[in-house]
Design a protein that fits this description.
alpha/beta, binds 6-O-phosphono-alpha-D-glucopyranose, 20 helices, eight-stranded antiparallel sheet, 36% helix, 22% strand
Length: 611
């Protein structure tokens, strides 16, 4: 949460920072701000999206070759101009942008107030910038030393960029639990929360580790840790192209990302399925395979959509590999004193690889001695670096806040994992294993088929765009899809929606059904087909409107449902990958019809780096 960007070099910084903020806006859009720090310091801050800042600064002098920018997801203090970053210290010596939370800010603030510091904002960040200044002035030390001393006194998480007006021509970046990547150019450096603002300028990057501090001039980088121990910067090459982070003619990133799912899944398969389709090999897990095979239990951890992918994983692993699985929200797991054994395997699923609660749960599992694996999309993010081993989903950058292609790519990886585990454990015969792999590799083409129904799905969406509530029902593998469908609708159209196991409807939600209630039912021809047909009857008897996702050619449900959306025939283990797609499209069109901000829904952020 919160996006930060910095530049030091010979180019004009303002356009680079502004563009960078637009790329990072998915991380928060409550306010934004830019500071240009050359001979003098110019700061522009505005409540609202980056476009507001751009308007605000349109006639201002934005000259300068060193600067920093921030787009905020509010934690301490409401979204307004005053609480927007960058923050300056009381005597104007330091300028700071910050992503994360300083947990002991209140104590530090009281201490600084007793030293005559007066605060303009309600933020924890202003406390930090004043703490740095206080230490700097008191100790008569370098800015970098003051920063390190201050950071050793704060509790919490930070990714930050700092400039000191007494030491022009320098930026300092630091990280603890909130990501920072530095782009290395010719006589210039870029700083950002992720690589997207950097890739059009350079593919050479340095990822900061926890407790790292980087001191940058336009021609040099000095890397150390907060304890002042020198470190050698490790330059890595990115392999991202700019097209992956642009809309490419689509109205919204979400629509582009929904349409990219066949490619995302094929990219996730690449190099992992043998050419004769009889084996899955997940390279990242090879070394830890003996421990995985010995696991008495698998615990899957995730938040939001990734947690839904985890439930699909639970159903698959238990049924295909016969290993007990628990699925946990990171936020619950970490605080409920869970039992974790050394022979447990913990799998953290995360698109961003930065979700604070998932990361904290990983640390807990590591301390308990479990093997910890990651399934993540963002290469080089914190979770892949903190886990023992893992598998990347190769969905490419996902920018729309509502997750779509990342979900299907996560489900793809967890499916491959379940198949491989089942086979290696001797639970799944070679014949069955090969048959399932063949079904799996057909999925991208089947999703293409589903995507062709877009216009029809749009027509159905129009009928329900004014709904106030919605219910999503599914059984077995399609229960998590019902949860995901409801989440998509809530997130981007602000319609209240609930996902339920279809049979549980009778234990409560059925009371909500009347002629105004759309009920989206996953009703493909699987082992619970007859049961779901009965559930549809129950909804219809109470005048609910049924929109059913059915197998192509199906007739019985067509007779009773108000609308049906067909998907190609698919085995039930793989049905989540197909049935979620119409639900994504329905939510998308409904949100557009309601004039909602599809890619940046209110109050949400894509990367949740606060607890
Ligand atoms: C946020 C995003 C969701 C995402 C969740 C977990 O809420 O808006 O789309 O599912 O975080 O994020 P992760 O990056 O860990 O998958």
């Amino acid at each position: 949460m919160c996006g930060i960007v910095g530049y030091i070099g010979c180019k004009q910084a303002y356009p680079i920072l502004l563009k960078g903020l637009k790329r990072l806006e998915y991380r928060g859009y409550d306010s934004s701000g830019i500071a240009l720090i050359d001979n003098d310091t110019k700061i522009f801050k505005k409540q609202g999206k980056v476009a507001e800042l751009e308007k605000f600064a349109s006639n201002a002098n934005t000259e300068g070759t060193i600067g920093m920018g921030h787009t905020r997801w509010a934690t301490h203090g409401e979204p307004n101009d005053l609480n927007a970053h960058p923050h300056t210290s009381q005597k104007g010596k330091f300028v700071l942008i910050h992503n994360g939370i300083i947990e002991n800010y209140s104590k530090l603030r009281t201490r600084l107030e007793s030293e005559d510091y007066v605060f303009k904002s309600e933020t924890d960040t202003e406390v930090l910038v004043n703490l740095i200044e206080y230490i700097y002035l008191k100790g008569d030390i370098s800015a970098e030393m003051a920063v390190r001393i201050a950071l050793s006194r704060v509790i919490g998480a930070y990714g930050l960029v700092i400039a000191c007006t007494d030491e022009p021509g320098q930026l300092i970046a630091a990280r603890k639990s909130s990501p920072i990547v530095i782009g290395v150019g010719e006589n210039e450096y870029y700083i950002a929360s992720d690589a997207t603002p950097i890739i059009e300028y350079t593919q050479s990057v340095i990822y900061l580790n926890n407790d790292d501090v980087a001191i940058l001039t336009k021609d040099s980088i000095t890397l150390k840790n907060v304890k002042n121990e020198a470190l050698i910067p490790k330059i890595q090459k990115l392999n991202l192209n700019i097209g992956a982070i642009e809309k490419n003619g689509y109205d919204h990133f979400m629509l582009k990302e929904i349409n990219e799912q066949p490619k995302a899944i094929n990219d996730t398969f690449r190099g992992r399925i043998s050419t004769n389709l009889d084996d899955v090999r997940l390279g990242g897990l090879v070394k830890v395979m003996p421990r995985i095979l010995e696991a008495k239990r698998i615990i899957i951890i995730g938040c939001g959509t990734s947690w839904h992918a985890g439930i699909v994983g639970e159903y698959l692993i238990e049924s295909i590999a016969r290993v007990p699985v628990d699925v946990e929200y990171g936020s619950e797991f970490r605080y409920r004193n869970p039992i974790i054994n050394k022979d447990d395997v913990v799998i953290a699923i995360s698109q961003s690889g930065e979700t604070a609660d998932t990361l904290a749960a990983i640390n807990l599992a590591k301390e308990a001695g479990a093997l910890v694996l990651g399934i993540c999309n963002v290469i080089g993010s914190s979770i892949p670096r903190e886990t023992d081993a893992g598998v990347y989903t190769h969905a490419g950058p996902e920018i729309g806040v509502a997750s779509t292609k990342a979900f299907t790519a996560q489900v793809t990886v967890i499916t491959m994992f379940a198949l491989m585990l089942g086979f290696r454990k001797g639970v799944l015969s070679q014949e069955k294993y090969s048959a399932l792999i063949k079904e799996l590799i057909d999925i991208p083409d089947k999703i293409e088929e589903v995507l062709k129904s877009n216009d029809y799905i749009k027509e159905i969406s129009a009928k329900f765009s004014q709904a106030e509530n919605a219910l999503y029902l599914g059984r077995g593998y399609l229960f998590p899809v019902a949860l995901e469908g409801a989440l998509k609708l809530k997130e981007i159209s602000y319609i209240h929606a609930e996902g339920y196991p279809a049979a549980e409807m009778k234990h409560g939600p059925i009371a909500l059904i009347d002629e105004n209630m759309p009920v989206f039912v996953m009703a493909i021809q699987d082992s619970s087909y007859e049961k779901i047909v009965s559930n549809i009857q129950e909804v219809k008897s109470r005048k609910g409107k049924v929109i059913a996702i059915v197998t192509k050619g199906e007739n019985a449900i067509k007779q009773i449902a108000d609308y049906v959306i067909e998907v190609p025939e698919v085995i039930e283990q793989l049905s989540p990958l197909l049935t979620v797609v119409p639900l994504q499209l329905l939510s998308y069109h409904i949100a557009v019809m309601r004039n909602c901000d599809v890619d940046q829904p209110r109050n949400l952020a894509k990367s949740v780096t606060v607890e």
